[in-house]
Specification:
about 280 residues, 2 domains, globular, 5 strands, five-stranded parallel sheet, alpha/beta
Length: about 280
Amino acid sequence: MLLHGYTQKRLQAIKPGSIHGLLLSGPRGSGKAFAARYLAQLQLGLATPAQLEIYPYFSVIAPTDGTISIDSIRGLQKFLQLRTPGDQVVRRVVVVEDAHTMTNEAQNALLKALEEPPADTMIILTAPKSLQLKETIYSRVQEIPIQKIAKEQANTYFDGDFEQADIDRAYMMSGGHAGLMNALLKQEDHHLANQVQRAKQILSSTLFDRLAQVDDLAKQRDTLPLFLQACKLICSAALHQAIDKGDDTKIKHWHRTLGVVHEAEASLAHNPNTKLLLCDLFLNL
C-alpha cells in the first residue's frame, strides 16, 4: 500500500458510520485520490479496488474545465436521495476531488449535504492544504493530511517492478509524494506528472527555445501553478543531487534557480501579466 504508515493507520481506524464528512488534504501529487478510494473501499467492506469501481453507490465528482459547478453538486444531491439496500452501516460513498475548485454556489449546496448527510453515507473531499474552502465546510469535516512516504517504503513497494535507479530518480523528483511518484514511474496521465515532463524540457533548453514557448504557456494560465510546482520539484531534486556529489558550481546554480522559481510563484499570486512573468522567469533560469 503506497501510503505513509501513519496515514494508512488513521484511515483504517475510522469506524464505519463514525464520520460522515472527511477532508483528505495535501499538495498535488500527494496521493489524495488514491487514499480516498482506499478509504471508500474500507468503509464499504469491499475486497478489491476493482469491486469499488463497479459498486453502484460509489461516485466521484471531479472538476470539468477546472471547476466543479453547482450542477455537479445538484447531481450529488439527487444521488444522495437514492435508497441503498443492505444492512451495512456505510452503503454509499461520494468522493469530491479537488474540492477547492467548487464555485461558491457549489460549496453552499454541498454544505447542506454535509450538515444533514444520510446515515448510510460518507462524503470524502480532497484538496491541497494551501487552497482554502469555505470555513463552514471545514467546520463540518474532519481533516486528515496525506503525508509523504519514506524512501524505504517506496523501495519495498516498487521493488521488482522497476530498476532501483528509476525508483531513486522518481522518489527524488516527486519529493516523496506517493501519487506523483507512482505516475512518474508508470508514465500515467497525471496533471502534475505531465507538467514535470514539460518543466524538465524547458529547464534543459536554450534561452532562445525557452522564450519561444512563452506565448503557448501564457495561454494556459490555469496550469501555471502546476508548472511552477513542477519546476520547484526538479530544481530541488537537482540541488540535492549536487549536494550529494559536493559539486559547488551546480549547488550554486540550482539554489539560485530554485529561488527564481519561488519568486515567480509568489508573483503569480498577485495576478501579474503572465507573459511578462514567464519572460522574466525564463531569462533568469
